[in-house]
Design a protein that fits this description.
291 residues; 2 domains; single chain; two-stranded antiparallel sheet; six-stranded antiparallel beta sheet; alpha+beta; 18% strand
């Protein structure tokens, strides 16, 4: 359920390519900042209210309490928190950079991302079904800090967190937990999810002109993981997976059509399927196509 909350959280920011809203010189900076703040404030407040009504209101309340889930799901959920922290911070930061805030936009984006996810953690803290997780907060912070540090040091993103998914067979064994259909499995089935860190050649070697969109990508996933706090279920034994693959930085493709470039920029959070080398329980294998 919380996974749906985090997806909803950054989808609001993901819908608009902030840097392409309008030519920067066509709107005065002050008005752009007011517009940006209004968009953020409206989306921030309305989405929290909606999420509370949809996800939290029906569950029993409690006093503030902590919840230790650091070992659950082999930390796949923490990668999801970090991914959300990065995207929220990046999208909010991009909006304020478009607004003309030249120096402090990374800090503003980081602050908005962390405060939004922090508000969700406090909602958890007062519900019996969950609790305030310091591990979630640390994962949120790590994702936001990855965006912030790169923007402050390099003025660009050299390490690109990405996500991929392909349905696994394990959801059929626990559909109430791993999802009954594709949309639910996309959010709940960690066996089908992979979190990646892509390193574009063009970012690290600016002199390279040809194929500067090509990336080396490192991924993490799990296999046969059906219970959050247990590694064994029926005849299944959970295992971690570490992958090395190639990827494409869609923002660096030599495309002239401005509309297509905007669309591809929004899809750059998704890892492009490629062949991959995978290590699982000390065994090296080759996957012709890795999602």
């Amino acid at each position: 359920m919380k996974r749906a909350i985090f997806l909803s959280a950054f989808l609001f920011f993901q819908q608009i390519n902030w840097g392409q809203l309008s030519p920067q010189d066509s709107i005065p900076t002050k008005k752009r900042v007011i517009l940006s703040s209004s968009i953020i404030g409206l989306g921030y407040g309305s989405s929290l209210i909606a999420l509370y009504d949809v996800w939290y209101a029906e569950f029993p309340k409690s006093t503030f309490h902590f919840y230790n889930d650091g070992s659950n799901w082999m930390q796949m959920d923490k990668f999801g928190h970090g991914f959300s922290g990065y995207l929220l911070s990046q999208k909010a930061g991009d909006l304020y950079r478009w607004s003309g805030v030249k120096k402090s936009y990374p800090w503003i984006g980081f602050g908005i991302g962390m405060s939004y996810l922090g508000a969700l953690e406090f909602m958890d803290a007062y519900n019996q079904g969950w609790g305030f997780s310091t591990y979630d907060v640390l994962a949120n912070f790590s994702g936001g800090a990855l965006y912030l540090s790169q923007e402050l040091i390099f003025k660009k993103q050299l390490v690109l967190p990405k996500f991929s998914f392909f349905p696994s067979k394990y959801a059929a064994y626990r559909p109430e937990v791993l999802g009954k259909n594709f949309p639910e499995q996309l959010l709940k089935d960690y066996n089908g999810q992979t979190y990646w860190f892509s390193f574009p050649i063009g970012g690290f070697a600016p002199s390279v002109k040809k194929m500067n969109w090509l990336c080396l990508s490192l991924g993490y996933s799990v296999d046969q993981k059906l219970v959050g706090d247990q590694d064994a279920y029926l005849d299944f034994r959970a295992a971690r997976q570490f992958l090395v693959s190639l990827d494409i930085d869609l923002t660096r493709l030599p495309i002239k059509n401005p509309t297509l470039k905007k669309v591809l920029a929004q899809l750059n959070m998704i890892k492009i399927p490629f062949s991959a080398l995978m290590i699982q329980q000390g065994n090296l294998s080759f996957k012709p196509i890795s999602f």
